[in-house]
Amino acid sequence: MPIATLPLATVGIGLLAVWSLFVGVSDVSLATLFGGAPGGAPDQATQVLLVSRLPRTLALILAGAAMAVSGLLLQMLVRNRFVEPSTAGTAESAIFGMMMVSLLAPEMPVFGRMAVASLCALAGTGLFLAILRQVPLRSPLVVPLVGIMLGGVITAMTEFVAYRQDLIQSVRGWETGDFSAILLGRYELLWLSAALTGVAYLAADRFTVAGMGRDVATNLGIDHRKVMALGLVIVSMTTAAVIATCGMIPFLGLIVPNVVSLVRGDNMRGSLPWVAVMGAGLVLACDIAGRLVIHPYEIPIGTMMGVIGSALFLYLLLRRNGHAG
């Protein structure tokens, strides 16, 4: 795939973003914005655009790019192509943290909630890695299966506590990605995930070397433990920020890095821009489709990505020419 096609892909994402601004129940079009439509309400249309549609579109781009990059990063660190935050216990642990904050400190500011969720996500991912060190990995498929089982256990604990404390509705909201409630002032946390994605790009070469294994990294002068810690912190904080803002987007971090890797290989510095662009594009496309299929109602993006992602996940699992690392 020539590098020159990246600007073309970015232009495509821009067109999807513009389309996203004009899809919805309220009538927002060029005619209503500039008062050309008979009986149009330009002030109302402008307010809907600035308060709802534009923040929603920015949130879609930021969340899609961040979760796709987190999946790529986790796959490099674990050295397995079937791992991403929702198949490693990371996302489920972040939801557990959000639930505990709602139960014990409901007045905590949103950054405090994200910090607690990040610590829980980091602990859950660490537990996942500790389990992997104790399990004989005779097949690459064992790794995601361990993560899915760990996530199932954490989810069961979360829902049990939430059911007893009447928080099950909040937990369901974090488990299902939904951008319909995104408004101005309720998505800015995602800019932090964009900054973390930038950090991941700056350290991309170190992550690539760390993905070759501890011995290779040490021989090349890389502190493998520090690189692993940096990567896990980025993944945990990004996952927590996305879940605190719009809920979990399943399989995104699994599909996009695998598709990009098939075309561009495993060099993270070369793949990361593509992963970010493709992640944002896939989330935008799924969200637009979810708003059009049963218009004027909409299907949450977590449901759309669940259907598409699970099908592609099974395809990747069943491929005879396994691409697993």
Give the helices and strands, then pairings.
Elements: H1 5-21, H2 30-33, H3 42-78, H4 90-104, H5 110-134, H6 142-164, H7 168-175, H8 190-202, H9 204-210, H10 214-219, H11 224-246, H12 252-264, H13 268-293, H14 301-318
Helix pairs in contact: 1-3, 1-13, 3-8, 3-11, 3-12, 3-13, 4-5, 4-6, 4-7, 4-11, 5-11, 6-7, 8-11, 12-13
What does the model show?
The chain has 325 residues and is an all-alpha fold. Helices cover 72% and strands 0% of the residues. The chain contains 14 helices and no strands. Helix 4 (90-104) crosses helix 5 (110-134) and helix 6 (142-164) packs antiparallel against helix 7 (168-175). The longest helix is centred in the first third of the chain and has 37 residues, at 42-78. The mean pLDDT is 87.
Which tags fit this structure?
globular, 72% helix, 325 residues
Taking all Cα atoms into account, the compactness measure Rg is 20 Å
User: What share of the residues does DSSP label as strand, in percent?
Assistant: under 5%
Order of helices and strands: HHHHHHHHHHHHHH
Largest sheet: none
Mean pLDDT, all residues: 87
Number of helices: 14
Name the poorly predicted regions.
Answer: none
Helix fraction bin? over 70%
Total strand segments: 0
For the termini, the CA-CA separation is 22 Å
Overall SS class: mainly alpha
Principal-axis shape: globular
Briefly, what is this?
With 325 residues, the chain is mainly alpha-helical.
